[in-house]
Amino acid sequence: MLRELRIGDMVAKLPIIQGGMGVGVSLSRLAGAVAKEGGVGVISTAQIGFEEPEFEKDQAKANLIAIKKHIKKAKELACGHGMVGVNIMVALKHYKEHVLAAVEAGADVIISGAGLPMELPELVDEKSHTRIAPIVSSKRAANLILKMWAHRYNRTADFIVIEGPKAGGHLGFSNEQLADMEHMDYDSEIKEIISCAKTYEEKFKKHIPVIVAGGVFTHEDVMHCMELGADGVQVASRFVATEECDASDAYKHAYLNANESDVQIIQSPVGMPGRAVRNEFIRGLEKEKQPITKCYNCLEKCNPATVPYCITKALIAAVKGDMQNGLVFCGANVGRINRMTTVHELMSELVGA
Fold first, then answer.
1. Residues 312-334: tens digit of each pLDDT
2. How crowded is residue 291: how many other Cβ atoms within 10 Å of its Cβ?
3. Cis (ω within 30 of 0) for the bond into 23?
4. Which Gene Ontology MF annotations are present (predicted)?
5. Are residues 304 and 158 in the same domain?
6. Is 274 helix (H, G, I), strand (E, B) or coil?
7. pLDDT, average across residues 213-217
8. What are phi and psi of 135, to 5 degrees?
9. 319 and 343 housed in the same domain
10. Would 231 disulfide with which of 55, 209, 297, 315, CB 3.0-4.6 Å?
11. Do 77 and 171 share a structural domain?
């Protein structure tokens, strides 16, 4: 029997975090359903306001409205069970504003990656309800963040999410590392990161749960992570093929129809490699850049004049079902997903119930 996941004074009956997926793939419906089952449901704030009427004119305003709306709705759906949190990318142009809005809305947790969240503790008061976690892919990154947080804020992480090389979306690895992924001894890296966390546990006299993500597909994978010393796992791709996922049916079928050979590493305008389903959109990019006629103000370091495509436009097209013009991020095991399920069935399968 898997033990519960404790983060600060909050408890999730099941040690399963549903990974944040944007744009619009994991919103309140999916996150609320996961929390209701006793897990941790996570909303992605990346261009979360894309369906708000203000979005075309004022993306920043629309996103802040949607962050508060989706956290509130997810908590209502959760009926007091599990936890509801958000994933906020460091690379976002309005990162600070997203964090403050999530705290104001009562998010249980904030998980932050796609860059190093060095200033996150400054934005989230330790006395607030919200707990914070960095996403790391190496011991070096974990130590860098925890050392900086300790030095600058006399504070440490409430938990840590380790994203391995098989994760979906943006990846904290080089193209060379990803190309030689099968020869990577990542279990050893996980143990090193857990050891790093224990150093700060001793310093701050508190437990820092460590969550392992990237390629977690079966109950056996969950148990393997626990045997390495993890407190829980984060699963993303498998939640796409659920009835409750917020993405369109066409998006879900892109997962169901994908084979292992359809998975490709691309270069994202975020400045990091990303794993996606090779589709018409990606094939078109290999022939020519997609002209950018409008900037949606999503990324801090994006230059519309030089990037090959607009990631906001591509991700919104995909989540709405336009696969010709849409970018579909995925995990390495997407080819193994071949049937639709429900959040309840998937959570039961993952915990071996």
1. 999 999 999 999 999 999 999 99
2. 9
3. yes
4. dioxygenase activity; nitronate monooxygenase activity
5. no
6. strand
7. 97
8. -100, 130
9. no
10. 209
11. yes
> Which residue do the tokens 């001894």 mark?
185
Q: Can you tell me the distance from the alpha carbon of 28 to that of 237, in angstroms, rounded to the nearest whole number?
A: 17
Average of pLDDT values for 286-301?
A: 88
User: Is residue 146 domain-shared with residue 283, that is, in the same domain?
Assistant: no
User: At which residue do the structure tokens 């994933």 appear?
Assistant: 87
Tokens representing residue 93 in the block: 């142009």
The dihedrals phi and psi of 332, each to the nearest 5 degrees, come to -65, -25
Same domain, 38 and 131: yes
Structure tokens, 10:
């909050």
Cis peptide leading into 109, omega within 30 of 0?
A: no
What pLDDT band is residue 304 in, cutting at 50, 70 and 90? confident
**Alpha carbons 44 and 106: distance in angstroms, whole number:** 15
CA distances in angstroms from 327 to 21, 47, 271, 296, listed in the order given: 12, 14, 16, 16
Contacts of 129 (CB under 8 A, 6+ apart): 103, 106, 108
Give the structural domain span for 115. 5-247+337-351
Neighbours of 195 (CB within 10 A): 13
* pLDDT higher than threshold 90 for residue 269: no
Q: Which of 112, 155, 114, 103 is nearest to 133 (CA)?
A: 112
pTM of the model: 0.97
Q: Token pair 């079966």 is at which residue?
A: 218
Phi/psi zone of residue 99: left (φ > 0), alpha (ψ -120 to 50 degrees), beta?
alpha
Residues 316, 30: Cα–Cα separation, whole Å: 17
Number of domains into which the chain is organized: 2
Report the percentage of the chain scoring pLDDT > 70: 100
